[in-house]
Amino acid sequence: MAFQPEILIALGANLPSEAGSPLQTLRSALTALAREGYAVDEVSKFYATPCFPAGFGPDYCNACARLTGPTDPSRILAALHRVEAQFGRERERRWGSRSLDLDLLAVGETVMPDEATQSRWREIAVEEQTQRTPDTLILPHPRLQDRAFVLVPLCDIAANWRHPILDRTARELCEALPEETRAEVVPM
């Protein structure tokens, strides 16, 4: 059997959907991913997390999952967007409240579109992040190393996943965050 790189995604919601509360929505989204051809191999605990950035809406329910299935990153992203749409996701405002947010964090050690572009987006200032979006898929997700609401649940399922550019594991990236930031991510 050929090696299949692990597909890592982050899930979040801070508004209800037709499925119910944000927690119910995340659980239903995991089921919907199976209909898209992705097996959910492992799911982190579900966490209550402060809205990011502060003041942009109600607090979130967050989790991470490890999937197997077709590994073409564009195909994965399209499937994630279809599932978001099923739960009423509207892309009206960058970092606005949402009924469902599914982010492709990594596909094994894939770097897209290239190391220089990934690094440029990884290093962009927070103020710019609210105003600009890349016009192409960036892998690994360019801000996962900055976000406790991603790294804490990611450590539940893939603590040893190694960032292909930063050469640090998810656990090392998480431990590098301030303790008070990690403490804001509370199991539900």
The geometry reads as: globular
Continuous helix count: 7
Structural category: alpha+beta
What Rg, in angstroms, do the CA atoms define?
15 Å
Q: DSSP strand (E) fraction?
A: 15-25%
The tally of structural domains comes to: 1
How widely separated are the two ends?
38 Å
Weakly predicted, low-confidence segments: none
What's the total count of β strands?
6
CATH superfamily: 7,8-Dihydro-6-hydroxymethylpterin-pyrophosphokinase HPPK
The CATH architecture term is 2-Layer Sandwich
Oligomeric form: single chain
Task: Report the average pLDDT across residues.
Answer: 91
CATH topology: Alpha-Beta Plaits
How would you spell out the order of helices and strands?
EHEEEHEHHHHHE
Domain 7,8-dihydro-6-hydroxymethylpterin-pyrophosphokinase: 94-105
GO molecular function: 2-amino-4-hydroxy-6-hydroxymethyldihydropteridine diphosphokinase activity; ATP binding; kinase activity
EC number: 2.7.6.3
Function: Catalyzes the transfer of pyrophosphate from adenosine triphosphate (ATP) to 6-hydroxymethyl-7,8-dihydropterin, an enzymatic step in folate biosynthesis pathway.
Key structural traits:
188 residues, 7 helices, alpha+beta
Written overview of the protein:
The N and C termini lie far apart (38 Å). The chain is built from 7 helices and 6 strands. It is globular. It has a single domain, classed as Alpha-Beta Plaits. The longest helix is centred in the N-terminal third of the chain and has 14 residues. Strands 1, 2, 3, 4, 5 and 6 form a 6-stranded antiparallel beta sheet that branches. The mean pLDDT is 91. It is α+β, with helices and mostly antiparallel strands.
